[in-house]
Structure formats: C-alpha cells, structure tokens
Amino acid sequence: MLRWTLKKHFVGNPTNSDFELKTAELPPLKNREVLLEALFLTGDPYMRVAAKRLKEGDTMMGQQVARFLLDSLIY
C-alpha cells in the first residue's frame, strides 16, 4: 500500500518536500472489509486547514475515486 504522509508542516504554499510517499504492508482483510485502489485523489483547499492538526508522519486524508479490487464477505 502507498500512502502520503505529512513530512513537515508547511507555511504558505505546500511543496513536494512537505510530503512523503510511504509503502506499508496491508494486513489480511477481516470479515466485511473491502480493498480499493485509488484512481484519483483530491487536493482540496480544506486540506490546508486539516494538515495543521496533523502530526508529522500522519497520513493525509482526502476524498478519492477508487476501484473495487477484493472483498472478504463471508456468507
């Protein structure tokens, strides 16, 4: 899994050096969980305010368009 994290708090316009793309291993899916692949990520103005509440290293949150890959539904 890839995830964008806040590397350091930014002042003014954010730059690429303010964020870090990290790789992490996904745990096995639990019952009733799904695996999605992000196709498009938003870069909305509210994210600037939300980033102020994050600690360095936290994952950036936002909206996305995703594709369904796998489910773990047990019938």
Automatic annotation (TrEMBL):
GO terms for molecular function: 15-oxoprostaglandin 13-reductase [NAD(P)+] activity. Belongs to the NADP-dependent oxidoreductase L4BD family. It catalyses: 13,14-dihydro-15-oxo-prostaglandin F1alpha + NADP(+) = 15-oxoprostaglandin F1alpha + NADPH + H(+); 13,14-dihydro-15-oxo-PGF2alpha + NADP(+) = 15-oxoprostaglandin F2alpha + NADPH + H(+); 13,14-dihydro-15-oxo-prostaglandin E1 + NADP(+) = 15-oxoprostaglandin E1 + NADPH + H(+). It comes from the Eukaryota. This is 15-oxoprostaglandin 13-reductase. InterPro entries: ADH_N_2, GroES-like_sf. It comes from Gorilla gorilla gorilla. Its EC number is 1.3.1.48. Residues 3-67 form the Oxidoreductase N-terminal domain. Signal peptide: none annotated.
